[in-house]
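Q: Sequence in, structure out?
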Amino acid sequence: MSAPVRPRIAIVAGTPQLLAAAAALGVDAVFVHAGNEPPTDAGHAIAVSNVDAEAVFSVLAPLHTVRPFDRVLSLTEAGLLPAAEVGQRLGVDGNPLHTVRLLQDKRRMRELPAANELSPVLARPVSSAADLAVFCRGAGGPVILKPAAGTASRAVFLVEAEQHAATVWEEFVLAGGVDPIAEEFLDGQELSVEAFSHDGEHVVIALTDKLLGPNFVELGHTVPSALPAARQEEIKALVLGFLDAVGLREGPSHTEVKLTSRGPRVIESHNRIGGDKIRELVRRAYGHDLVQLTVGCPLGLTPPPEPVPARRGAAIRFLTPASGTVARIVLPRDTEGCVIDLAVGTGDVIGEVRSSGDRSGYVLAEGVDAEDATGRGERVRDAITVETVPAGRD
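A: Exactly. Output:
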């Protein structure tokens, strides 16, 4: 009797966790990477521009002819669109290309009638400081200026009033902002919704409370959310309807929501796992491995997840020391229940925190519940010393 044929996937611009999950599930993986050294879990690695869909198709199409792929996957923002386009051209099941395009373009997302009925937000593209000023005048209050395809809080600015439009526009350009969209400022608490979809059915796995700093950069996340049950159900209903409206079919999603005075509103959504170690927070608190589900669920190797109550609490808090050259680092001895990860060392120069990549490390904490995890993480964060001196001074 011949051995059963192992499932086969292509991973575009993948993460080590995705490759490891494929290996653990006995799935053959072809890894398309950008020329860097491929991880050891990649059985077959190909170096090609993994953000160029045509280049990816040219290397995967001959392999697909010999032995078809069951899925073309990615969990990185840069790889999602090429993976969807190549999968469609190969005739492989997965999320529709138009859905992935929609989620990567905040303008198109806001223009989708069904999504806009669920989450009405005043928004439109702007092309100049004068155009931004006109939008501010029409909005009648503060607005947000950001790139239509931006991530990691890069080049996101608050425009307090019409008279500030020119100054903010200049800051946006200097920060590398392109393809700008202006939206009315949404008041209220911000959080994210982690969900998973299978055959077009969506399950909300977790609501994640956010801690925001200056420039809208995320400084922390906590699960489970501390919101009252009724508000959580309101947010879940919005996100489930939104995922239906955009046509998401399978895999993880990360949807950012503002709980405004007019009700919950979707800020943006992505057909991937949230960054900032949210996958690890979810695993610790709920026991769901989102990466393993991404590989195993569409192939029938793991069942779709079911909503379960949190069994623990988990939190992450990021380090944002003062700008300057790092002169000294002191770590606390008591780190029970916490993991510290530093992204800087002595001699490194720290700048102003303008995006997620400017943070200097994190503390990841686990506790009996969210309050306990948050307390542990913040105590350890506050006990870490990253001393800086003005850049250029010994």
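The chain has four domains: 8-94, 122-184, 189-311, 316-389.
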